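Standup notes
- DV: blocked on the single-chain target, sequence here:
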Amino acid sequence: MAGSFLYTPASGTILTAGNNQALKVDFTPNDSVNYKTASKTVSINVLKGTPVITWANPADITYPTLLSGTQLTATADVAGSFVYTPAAGTKLNASPGQALKVDFTPTDIANYNTATKTVSINVLKGTPVITWANPADITYPTLLSGTQLNATADVAGSFGYTPAAGTKLNANPGQALKVDFTPADAANYNTATKTVSINVLKGTPVITWANPADIVYGTALGAAQLNATANVPGTFTYTPAAGTLLNPGPGQALKVDFTPTDAANYNTATKTVYINVVYTFIGFLAPVDNPPTVNVGNPGRTYPVKWQLKDANGNYVSDLGSFASLQYTSVSCGGFNLNLSDPLDTTATGGAVLRYDATANQFIYNWQTPTTSNACYVLTLTLKDGTTHIADFQMKK
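- DV (later): unblocked, structure below
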């Protein structure tokens, strides 16, 4: 029959979880004249709800990334707490499809069950970070060593270099050096490779060449003087060349230009040495005696100082240009081997200061000795070739 229903509890009421909960209805008929109101009660079981957990499979991570809120991001449709297995901060080994589980405990445990959800994550192998800067330039023929092959990595492992230690690289810029790194933990790390570049500069040959011994004027330059060697094969070009006759004089430059056979790996090189070209000094001639004899005479006396010079071929030298100076130094009569400092120029007599006697093949210089009595002197003849020659004098009266 027609009428209206009134439910207790009303529609829209959320019942708490529990069994045999009463639902009552009161019915009021439209024809209240002929019908009474009526009631009925039934029972209902309200089961605990199951929370809905939302959690997608996390994006891949790379070993040794630690689990964090980036991966452990489950949410639920009711309030509560989450416990993850494995927990945040765990370092998973590299492997695909590893399980991540969350256990959810609702705050309203009277009305909600606990809930669990499992997702999977791929943990990729990590790639070691190799640190290796371009090595400093080396010079041929330097061998590769730990100075250049010095890569490091952020994990333990072994390094294989190409080319290997001990290799001699040819001279060339920007040559590749490669390292292959094998991690000790191959289960969790990939192998890695890095390439750097090195400049190998041309080497400079080492020329060995000492200053040659003095030669006598008229000696042609030869192998005895032009005898440079180098530490690598090649050819030598001398300036002045072999066969050259040098003028007399001290410290004359001899230069060598070296061209290595292996021009691809070595630079050319140059070295200069110095040689003295001297006369053969025959000695002072009478009336002047050579050391250790002391010439004894009267002060103010004029000595004809005479000497002869020869070249390498035994020919007498007559060039007045061979003479540089004639000086004397006052010394103690107790000994003539003193430091000859502050020499004085000689005073010549008899016309020309210096002349050459072509008949006797000798130079003549008339030296007027000082007038001081009981004095001693060292007479020093300096030639154009830089050599000096002395005679000792003692003046008595």
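- Follow-up: Residues 3-46 form one domain.
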